[in-house]
Fold:
Amino acid sequence: MKFAVLVSGCGTNLQALIGALNKKRIAAEIGLVVCDRRKARALTRAKKAGIPSAFIDPARYPKREDFDREMVRLLRDAQIDFVVMAGFMRILSPYFIRTYRGRVLNIHPALLPAFKGGQAVADAFHYGVKVTGVTVHIADDRVDHGPIVLQEHVDVTAKDTLASLEKKIHAVEHRLYPKAVDLMARGSLKIEGRKVKILKK
Ligand code: GRF
Structure:
């Protein structure tokens, strides 16, 4: 099994996946890293790990679907079986979701359906929640919406600052995402409507 990782930023989740692969904790390999920002740290991480990577320039594809068609072309060339979004700051088009239906994972730094969107950790912190967490879900054509694969909670204590909460959330992400990716790679996820059953193999 081969998967692609879609990134835009720092790539700490990509790094966690690389670490898990090196320890043989994921029954698959990364066939391609795709990035929409030329200078993203995630691209450097991919190169350092010897993983093929591609930068797609959004300026060349102003229409979302055209960008996604180029991405699908690259994923097909690389014989990618499933897709892992790791801090990818673009919304996938219905065309992309149709092409890889049920085979796209996303990670979100809150307990969905609470605090959707790009500022989830800050939104939850400023809202004053006592509990937040991490969600791994199947991506569908609505933002932060698809069926939930794994969730784990994180307590917010009186001592927490936004920075300390971000650190705690990231630590959970880096543990949870490799687990979810391995389940997908092993074909252990059965999607039934909004429910995802984890098959024991
Ligand atoms: C993570 O917090 C993830 O939940 C969100 O974007 C962030 C990406 O961080 N979707 P990194 O680039 O993996 O460090």
Summary: Strands lie at 2-7, 29-35, 53-55, 82-85, 104-108, 131-138, 148-155, 189-192, 195-198. The two ends are 17 Å apart (CA to CA).
